[in-house]
Amino acid sequence: MTHRMERDGRTRSPPRWTRSQAAGIERSDETVAPIVYPPEEDVAPDLHCWDTWLLRSRDGSIAEIDGYRVVFSLTAPADLLPGTRHDVATIRYFYSADGRNWTCGGRVFPEGTAFGSRQWAGSALYDDDRLYLFYTAAGSRGETELSYTQRIAVGTGGTITADEDGVSIAGPFEHEILLEPDGEHYEREDQSRGMIYTFRDPWFFEDPASGETCLLFEANTPIPDPEDEDRFDADPAALAYNGSVGIAVSRSGDPTEWTLEPPILEGVGTNQELERPHVVVRDDGYHLFVSSHEHTFAPGIAGYDALYGFVADSLRGEYAPLNESGLVVTNPASAPFQTYSWLAYPHREEILVSSFFNYYDLQGLSLDDVAHLPPAEQQRRFGGTLAPTLRLTAENASTRILGTLEHGHLPIADEELPPLLSAFADDGSGAESGARYGDGPVSR
Ligand code: FRU
Fold first, then answer.
1. What is the pLDDT of residues 245-255, one digit of tens each?
2. How far is the CA of 136 from the centre of ligand 1 (A)?
3. Could you give the count of Cα atoms lying within 13 Å of 35 in the half-sphere of its Cβ?
4. Would you give the distance in Å from CA 77 to the centre of its chain?
5. Which of 106, 283, 339, 412 lies deepest, with the highest CB count within 10 Å?
6. Mind listing the domains of the chain with CATH numbers?
7. Residue 380: HSE in the Cβ half-sphere, 13 Å Cα cutoff
8. Does 273 contact ligand 1 (Cβ within 6 A)?
């Protein structure tokens, strides 16, 4: 059971994203991003790039290595069909002196050295001159048939250096499995009845209020017997959709020593996949974000491929869904799969949201339909690069998209953002977002 002990000795269930909250999901001016067009220049034309994360310091600020910022992305050769990229995902790093122009530095782990037959999303910590590269080990190294086991791993011991030629990350890395599902709070693959099993996407976070060192991750809550399950107000068919946001804690602060604790959010009966969970702390609370798909909502709930969010006054909730339903950013109805895998981070008064450019120009096709298109058509409609960064405001459990930056523009530190003009501005005082900053016309 995923009950947890409170300090006073009582137990309580983790906070939930309920079916009735999610039933309110609906596109609005505040939550729909502008249409995305291909960038003028692709940073890495030979690669499909998707989930991306920034190198950070222990306090969550974005690390700078001699003036460079560094991101890590899941990548695959661009000549592969986009739908098969997850089967060969490899983590590569990119660096930039200005947060706009990125150079690929190569793979972070030499082939065959990391855990898993491929590596999925993670997070990256630079602390005390040490690199901690957290990742998901999917499957087993060397397996001939792909399996979907997922374990949370880290590579440590490598170095990161910078000179006038750029940044280089070098091994050898020591790899360690940090976490596996316990079958009690976190479903093992053999317990899963759902469509897509998850135990992945570790995200390092140090709680500024308590100093607690945490690793968040995407998981599923075990549902031993759906017929007997009265804990959730959902029928047995909906209970197969059992996504959660997991947490492990390091009591010593050592980023390689973790103990599992009960989830901080459960979407049982609501959604199967609460992907890439991460937190943005602001004066008005802990904003917990996850990405999820239209097709992973339980029967009876119509959601979108979107960034969803929740706010609480502490890391373990009670969480209230942002904008009442949880919907924070989605794609326009005319391009519902144009971006995915959002990552939010604070910048000045705003929250910036990066994502990758996914399938576009589908003209009403579903993601399932895409797989039946001729290979060249599948390739043509897949972005596989960073999308325009979105600018958000958040206040009192509500958010609003303010505008966009260019594809892959990731401002840090005190970098000033262009004035907000345009369709997004409150007072209608003028222009920008699309026109000047690369998106083309704003159209929903
Ligand atoms: C989201 C995601 C992640 C996973 C990766 C695998 O885009 O499903 O949860 O780590 O893709 O490619």
1. 999 999 999 99
2. 9
3. 13
4. 21
5. 339
6. 46-346 (2.115.10.20)
7. 7
8. no
